[in-house]
Amino acid sequence: MHETTDRVADGVATTDAAAAADTIPDDGIVPMSGLSAGPKDVAHELAASNRDRSLTVPASADAGFVADTELPNADALDLRYPFSAWPNLKRAVNEGRVDFVDDHLSVVEQSVARGHFGDPDVAVVEALAVGEDWLVPTTAVGAVPAFVAAADAVIVEVNEALPLELQRLHDTWTPSPPPRDPLSLSDPGERLGDQFVRFEPDKLAAVVRTENDPVPYPFREPTDAEAAIADNVVDFLADELVDNRAFRERFTFEVGIGSLGNEITERIGDLDFGDRRVDYYGEVAQDGLLDLLEAGTLSAASATALVLGEDGVDRLLDRPELVAENACTRSMSVSNDPGLIRAFGVVAINTAVEVDVYGHTNSSHVQGSQLLQGIGGSGDFARNSLLSTMVLPSTAKDGAVSRIVPMASHVDHPDHDVDVVVTEHGVADLRGLTPDERFETVVEQCADPDFRQELRRYGERAARGGGHMPHDLPTAFGMHGE
């Protein structure tokens, strides 16, 4: 791999963040790098200016803490796409102050490239380094290659707080628009390109030098219920390693972002893999994955971004070689590609807001209406994985509300895409079960004991109406609570 040693190549002029932000149209379509690599200083200046802005911001999932906090606070944001991680943006969306379009992360690059939100004006990207016709991303590739290709102009924030060694982490290759051949990747560690995102020199509108540590993801200590869920997941996987012929030689997994997901990732290191090859092929690499890399558990680790908590950020800054030499970040069109997820036989583990008695899963909206975050990449992996697992505590609001419900208030993942449900009470293995059997298994294994009788009474009422998957629609949502 050819590596750059320059943060800003000779002949490339720099400016300040305010001047760069002033070049962006007030009603511009402004794709931003995101996840852990959202722009910071330019995003701040966009929000701090006195101009009446109404921006459309597609991003690599979230647009970063600064953009998704300060832009909605300043009423400078008209529409965001495709994921919401930070409280201020979620509040603005649920209050109707910001329009929001939810989508699978695997299609974000092609949606923006096809102009679904209009023709992008300026892409704003955080980078490790930049030249007149190239840039190197920081801690995420995301949708940056497609954003840069689609935009009329590019503004680059060169973040000098991040080690330049991280450039070895990236594979920025992204597929061409359809029609095209299926993606060909022999294993999760293979690379298809290099670390450079290239563009025509006349696109480079501004370069801003910055120095900002990554904003840590707010991981917290697991609750007792979450610790029990992680125990149940690991016990279930231990049995699968023995009984499932698909895992005799290789085990490839993905875990969704969040405190529970991070706990599960850490616990996976406790499994006895024998002489199996173990790979991670997922959307994000979180703190728990650093432990697996350090322990030598993984043969390969592939994601679209590093999304790290406070401890993970410190480890990244102290030992960048841990990830730079042992992991690979890719464009979302590759990290979340359905064909590759199927080809690698990924075991997908994702968190849910609620699961109903048949396995339909809501991962994005509270009580069906209030945006929690969005579907993200969970749909890409749930639909296409070899084994799709949904994890969640059985109750909410200190046990007052059941999260195992008669009918999901919003369905992101239909019952067809959910193989296993895990709560602190147990594991519901739904593979090969009829709807009636799924009902009984979910209630018996996963519902909190305080709600099982009520759920069974619901099932009895629903059964009087007959049908393949009985529901009592007038009372289906009575257990969702206030």
TrEMBL record:
Official protein name in the record: Acetyl-CoA hydrolase
Annotated family: Belongs to the acetyl-CoA hydrolase/transferase family.
Region (Disordered): 462-482
Gene3D superfamilies reported in the protein's UniProt record: Acetyl-CoA hydrolase/transferase C-terminal domain (3.40.1080.20), Glutaconate Coenzyme A-transferase (3.40.1080.10)
Short name of one Pfam family: AcetylCoA_hyd_C
Residue span, Acetyl-CoA hydrolase/transferase C-terminal domain: 325-457
Biological process according to GO: acetate metabolic process
Domain called Acetyl-CoA hydrolase/transferase N-terminal: residue spans: 70-163
